[in-house]
């Protein structure tokens, strides 16, 4: 699980996004939809799911706002993300294996942004954080 050092690194990285969060979220979403095409089925109701589309950019922003919120709730993710878990479990019916896929895409996009600042320690902290977010989002699946 996340150590105090991991949590500090996650907060530091998030603090350095400086307005780039929306673009990184959109890129991660594009990566997910392209690299793991089975995920496209969940977004079939969008008018356009291609890279750079309004829907993709807007949802990238939505995801990153939720992740920012999760960073603030890093000490209690299961309670903090319970509404979002409920939504993905019962209304959206997302297969929970997809949380890992979006997490990998987010880590990839963050690595591209941060380049040499994305050290193995930062990589570990971010991976563990998204794993904890994914576990919390899976909590309401029964
Ligand atoms: C909607 C966050 C993972 C599919 C949403 C919303 C948020 C969110 C904040 C909007 C909720 C609302 O309207 O109240 C997240 C976070 C994730 C995650 C933080 C993991 C880090 C996934 C994954 C999938 C997915 C892996 C599917 C592959 C959807 C869909 C919607 C949605 C289909 C509705 C979008 C729409 O109709 O415009 N998500 N999500 N989510 N999410 Fe997720």
Describe it.
The protein is an all-alpha fold. The protein has seven helices and no strands. The chain starts with a helix and ends in a 5-residue tail after the last helix. The model has no long low-confidence stretch (mean pLDDT about 95). Bound molecules: protoporphyrin IX containing FE. The site of protoporphyrin IX containing FE (HEM) has 18 residues, from helix 3, helix 5, helix 6 and helix 7. The site of protoporphyrin IX containing FE has 18 residues, from helix 3, helix 5, helix 6 and helix 7. Pfam families: Globin (PF00042). This is Globin domain-containing protein. One of its GO terms (biological process) is hydrogen peroxide catabolic process. Keywords: Heme, Iron, Metal-binding, Oxygen transport, Transport.
């Amino acid at each position: 699980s996340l150590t105090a050092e991991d949590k500090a690194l996650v907060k530091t990285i998030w603090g350095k996004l400086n307005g780039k969060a929306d673009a990184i979220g959109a890129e991660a979403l594009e990566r997910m939809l392209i690299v793991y095409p089975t995920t496209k089925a969940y977004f079939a109701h969008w008018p356009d799911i291609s890279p750079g589309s309004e829907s993709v950019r807007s949802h990238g922003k939505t995801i990153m706002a939720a992740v920012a919120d999760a960073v603030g709730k890093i000490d209690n993710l299961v309670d903090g993300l319970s509404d979002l878990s409920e939504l993905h479990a019962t209304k959206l019916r997302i297969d929970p294996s997809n949380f890992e896929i979006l997490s990998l895409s987010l880590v990839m996009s963050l690595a591209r942004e941060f380049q040499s600042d994305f050290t193995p320690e930062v990589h570990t902290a971010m991976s563990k954080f998204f794993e904890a977010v994914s576990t919390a989002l899976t909590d309401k699946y029964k």
